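Last lecture ended with a question: if I hand you only a sequence, what can you say about the shape of the protein? Today we answer it with a concrete record. The protein is GOLD domain-containing protein. Below, first the input exactly as provided, then the predicted structure, then a couple of comments.
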Amino acid sequence: MKLNSIILIISCWLTTFTLGHNVLLPAYGRRCFFEKLSKGDEFSVSFQFGDRDPQSSNQLTGDFVLYTPGRTQVLQSIVNQAHGEVTISAPDGGKFEYCFINENSNVQTKDVTFNIHGTVYVNVDDPNNESLDGSVRTLSKLIKEVQNEQSYIVIRERTHRNTAESTNDRVKWWSIFQVGVVVANSLFQIYYLKRFFEVTSYV
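The predicted structure:
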C-alpha cells in the first residue's frame, strides 16, 4: 500500500511543472515565450517588473499579453502594471505564446521576474475531490503561490531599499549644507561684532 502511495505522489510531481525566470526587456521591445498545453491543462504566469539599475528607486511597469495557439486572438492582457498574475485553463491544445512588453518605454534597465507553473488537468478546487492525487496537487498549487509571493516581496524590498538609500543621501547633503550655512553665519557675526567694537582714533 505504501509503495502505491509513493508511486502516486511521484507521478503527481512529474505532471506538475514550475519554472522561474528573470529577463531584461529591451527599450521599445518585447520578450515572448510559449508553453505547449493540452486541452484542459491549467497554466499560470505571475510576474513582477523591476529595475536592474541599483541606484533606481522607481517602480517600473509594463504590459503582458497571452495569445491562443497561432496568435489567432488575445486570451489575456494586462496593461501598465507593476505586477500581476494570469491563470487559464487551456481551451484547446497547442502552443500558447505569452509576451512581456516594453514597447512604450525607452528604459533599458527594465527587467521582469516571472514564474510559470501548471498542472495537467485535474479539478483541484472540487470540494468533493478527497483523493490523494487531488490533495497533493492542491498542496503543490499553494506552495507555488507562496513562492510567487516571496519573489514579489524580494523585488519590492529592493525597490524600497533603493528609495531609502536615495533619501538618506539627500538628507546627508542637506545636513552638510545646513552646517556650512551655520558656520558661515557664525564667522560673519564674529567679524561684524569685532568691527562694531573697534575703536577708531583720528589724529
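Comments.
1. The chain is about 40% helix and 35% strand.
2. The domain at 2-158 is CATH 2.60.120.380 (Jelly Rolls).
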